UniProtKB/TrEMBL annotation:
UniProt xrefs under PANTHER family: GLUTATHIONE S-TRANSFERASE OMEGA (PTHR43968:SF6), PTHR43968
InterPro entries in the cross-refs: Glutathione-S-Trfase_C_sf, Glutathione_S-Trfase_N, GST_Omega/HSP26, GST_UstS-like_C, Thioredoxin-like_sf
The organism's taxonomic lineage, starting at the top: Bacteria, Pseudomonadati, Pseudomonadota, Alphaproteobacteria, Hyphomicrobiales
Protein name according to UniProt: Glutathione S-transferase family protein
Organism of derivation: Hoeflea ulvae
Every GST N-terminal domain range: 8-84
Length: 230
């Protein structure tokens, strides 16, 4: 049975940009599970699967409905143990929780000012109004003020990624010898900005750049199938 993945899109349904939805996409591909992508705009999220969640991604796997990217990964790991592991064991799952916490609280904080205006501009008008009001209330800044912080955010990004850079100097993936869900968590953040901004995030000689390019090539170029923002 094909799994249905509800994921966030803007005015162009061919350009899904949510970092959390990309984590779910990569997790499903990692498991080698067939899935169908269902497009959802911001203002339609409350209608997904009867309002099961305030956010996407949400998956339906037969009678099972699961929300939240980490919970989706944990569900896939438990339900399909014969498929390639997303965590490499209980300890790996616990460590992935740390990577997610760092990404959500530190890395996303830097990425926000780079991405927010681009996200707004990619939405349909009804979603633009919702996005502006909700994000400005959450952050305490206007979108224009976030744009003013874009250069400072770009300057701060290399230092913010230092833990990832140091890790990748001694191993090819955050997960070790092969990619795991921890890789997809950080990948989702960089993919988010790649698809909403034309900013050059990483220098050519940066180990994080090499890692990100390899992530884009995984699963027949799944991440690269959506071109970078012009």
């Amino acid at each position: 049975m094909t799994i249905i993945l509800h994921e966030l899109v803007g005015a162009d349904p061919a350009r899904p940009f949510s970092p959390h939805c990309w984590k779910a996409v990569m997790a499903l591909a990692h498991k080698g599970l067939p899935f169908e992508r269902s497009n959802v705009c911001f203002t339609k999220v409350p209608e997904v699967e009867g309002g099961v969640s305030k956010t996407v991604p949400v998956i339906r796997d037969g009678d099972q409905v699961v929300s939240d990217s980490f919970m989706i990964a944990a569900y896939l790991e438990e339900t399909y143990p014969d498929r390639p592991s997303l965590f490499g064991g209980e300890g790996g799952q616990a460590m992935a929780r740390f990577v997610e916490s760092w990404t959500n609280t530190v890395l996303h904080g830097v990425m926000r000012d780079i991405a927010m205006k681009g996200i707004h501009d990619a939405l349909a008008p009804v979603d633009q109004a919702y996005f502006r009001s909700s994000r400005e209330a959450r952050v305490g800044k206007t979108l224009e003020q976030m744009v003013e912080g874009r250069e400072a955010a770009l300057a701060a990004l290399p230092g913010t990624l230092m833990p990832v850079r140091v890790t990748l100097k001694s191993q090819p993936w955050i997960g070790g010898s092969s990619p795991l869900f921890a890789d997809y968590i950080v990948f989702g953040a960089l993919q988010w900005v790649r698809l909403t901004s034309n900013a050059r995030l990483l220098e050519a000689d940066d180990p994080v750049k090499d890692w990100f390019e390899r992530c884009l090539d995984l699963y027949d170029g799944l991440g690269r199938s959506v071109p970078q923002s012009a």
